Amino acid sequence: MVSTDNPEGKTTINDLEMAGILLAWLVLEQINANIKYRTVGLFCDNMSAVTWTSKHKSSTSAKAGHLLRALAMRQHATKTAPLLISHIVGTENIMADTASRPYTNTTNQPFLEFFNQKFPLQNN
Known about the structure:
Layout: H1 13-31, E1 41-44, H2 47-55, H3 62-78, E2 84-87, H4 94-100, H5 111-118
Protein backbone atom coordinates (compact mmCIF):
# COMPACT_ATOMS: atom_id res chain seq x y z
CA MET A 1 0.00 0.00 0.00
CA VAL A 2 1.35 3.44 -0.89
CA SER A 3 1.60 5.57 2.25
CA THR A 4 3.94 8.06 3.86
CA ASP A 5 5.63 5.14 5.64
CA ASN A 6 5.76 3.08 2.43
CA PRO A 7 6.11 5.41 -0.59
CA GLU A 8 7.30 2.51 -2.78
CA GLY A 9 4.07 0.55 -2.28
CA LYS A 10 2.30 -0.89 -5.33
CA THR A 11 -1.35 -0.42 -4.33
CA THR A 12 -2.97 3.01 -4.00
CA ILE A 13 -6.14 4.19 -2.29
CA ASN A 14 -7.54 4.70 -5.80
CA ASP A 15 -7.03 0.99 -6.55
CA LEU A 16 -8.86 0.13 -3.34
CA GLU A 17 -11.72 2.46 -4.24
CA MET A 18 -11.98 0.72 -7.62
CA ALA A 19 -12.09 -2.61 -5.80
CA GLY A 20 -14.91 -1.14 -3.69
CA ILE A 21 -16.92 -0.37 -6.83
CA LEU A 22 -16.51 -3.95 -8.02
CA LEU A 23 -17.45 -5.25 -4.57
CA ALA A 24 -20.55 -3.02 -4.52
CA TRP A 25 -21.55 -4.48 -7.89
CA LEU A 26 -21.08 -8.05 -6.64
CA VAL A 27 -23.18 -7.33 -3.56
CA LEU A 28 -25.88 -5.76 -5.74
CA GLU A 29 -25.98 -8.91 -7.87
CA GLN A 30 -26.63 -10.97 -4.74
CA ILE A 31 -29.33 -8.80 -3.19
CA ASN A 32 -31.19 -7.98 -6.41
CA ALA A 33 -31.35 -10.80 -8.94
CA ASN A 34 -33.59 -8.74 -11.24
CA ILE A 35 -30.99 -6.43 -12.80
CA LYS A 36 -31.10 -7.96 -16.28
CA TYR A 37 -31.62 -5.21 -18.90
CA ARG A 38 -31.52 -2.55 -16.18
CA THR A 39 -29.38 0.53 -15.67
CA VAL A 40 -27.61 0.74 -12.33
CA GLY A 41 -26.23 3.92 -10.77
CA LEU A 42 -23.58 4.27 -8.09
CA PHE A 43 -21.99 7.17 -6.23
CA CYS A 44 -18.29 7.20 -5.34
CA ASP A 45 -16.20 9.84 -3.58
CA ASN A 46 -12.96 8.89 -5.37
CA MET A 47 -12.56 10.81 -8.61
CA SER A 48 -9.97 8.43 -10.08
CA ALA A 49 -12.25 5.43 -9.63
CA VAL A 50 -15.20 7.39 -11.05
CA THR A 51 -13.18 8.39 -14.13
CA TRP A 52 -11.82 4.88 -14.68
CA THR A 53 -15.30 3.37 -14.42
CA SER A 54 -16.83 5.99 -16.72
CA LYS A 55 -14.14 5.54 -19.38
CA HIS A 56 -13.85 1.77 -18.85
CA LYS A 57 -10.06 2.10 -18.74
CA SER A 58 -7.10 3.22 -16.67
CA SER A 59 -3.81 4.36 -18.11
CA THR A 60 -2.22 4.78 -14.69
CA SER A 61 -3.06 1.58 -12.81
CA ALA A 62 -2.81 -1.99 -14.04
CA LYS A 63 -4.69 -3.14 -10.93
CA ALA A 64 -7.59 -0.84 -11.76
CA GLY A 65 -7.55 -2.20 -15.31
CA HIS A 66 -7.95 -5.75 -14.01
CA LEU A 67 -10.77 -4.67 -11.71
CA LEU A 68 -12.50 -2.87 -14.59
CA ARG A 69 -12.29 -6.00 -16.70
CA ALA A 70 -13.87 -8.03 -13.90
CA LEU A 71 -16.65 -5.42 -13.59
CA ALA A 72 -17.27 -5.51 -17.36
CA MET A 73 -17.41 -9.31 -17.31
CA ARG A 74 -19.99 -9.27 -14.51
CA GLN A 75 -22.08 -6.66 -16.33
CA HIS A 76 -21.94 -8.75 -19.50
CA ALA A 77 -22.89 -11.91 -17.60
CA THR A 78 -25.87 -10.19 -15.96
CA LYS A 79 -26.84 -8.42 -19.22
CA THR A 80 -27.02 -4.96 -17.64
CA ALA A 81 -26.29 -1.57 -19.14
CA PRO A 82 -22.89 -0.02 -18.38
CA LEU A 83 -22.69 1.23 -14.81
CA LEU A 84 -23.67 4.88 -14.37
CA ILE A 85 -21.26 6.28 -11.82
CA SER A 86 -21.26 9.77 -10.36
CA HIS A 87 -18.88 11.57 -8.06
CA ILE A 88 -20.15 12.56 -4.64
CA VAL A 89 -18.17 14.75 -2.29
CA GLY A 90 -16.90 12.75 0.67
CA THR A 91 -18.63 14.94 3.25
CA GLU A 92 -21.97 14.25 1.53
CA ASN A 93 -21.37 10.50 1.43
CA ILE A 94 -22.63 9.84 4.94
CA MET A 95 -22.81 6.04 4.69
CA ALA A 96 -19.19 5.67 3.57
CA ASP A 97 -18.07 8.30 6.05
CA THR A 98 -19.81 6.44 8.90
CA ALA A 99 -18.28 3.11 7.87
CA SER A 100 -14.76 4.55 7.56
CA ARG A 101 -14.72 6.13 11.03
CA PRO A 102 -13.67 4.22 14.13
CA TYR A 103 -16.73 2.48 15.55
CA THR A 104 -17.26 3.20 19.22
CA ASN A 105 -19.29 0.39 20.68
CA THR A 106 -20.84 1.85 23.83
CA THR A 107 -23.96 -0.37 23.74
CA ASN A 108 -22.37 -3.72 22.79
CA GLN A 109 -24.28 -3.43 19.51
CA PRO A 110 -22.47 -5.07 16.57
CA PHE A 111 -21.43 -2.64 13.84
CA LEU A 112 -23.63 -4.19 11.15
CA GLU A 113 -26.68 -3.91 13.41
CA PHE A 114 -25.81 -0.26 14.17
CA PHE A 115 -25.28 0.48 10.45
CA ASN A 116 -28.56 -1.19 9.42
CA GLN A 117 -30.41 0.75 12.10
CA LYS A 118 -28.85 4.05 11.01
CA PHE A 119 -29.35 3.36 7.27
CA PRO A 120 -32.28 0.94 6.85
CA LEU A 121 -32.89 -0.54 3.41
CA GLN A 122 -36.09 0.66 1.79
CA ASN A 123 -38.60 -1.96 0.73
CA ASN A 124 -39.31 -2.08 -3.01
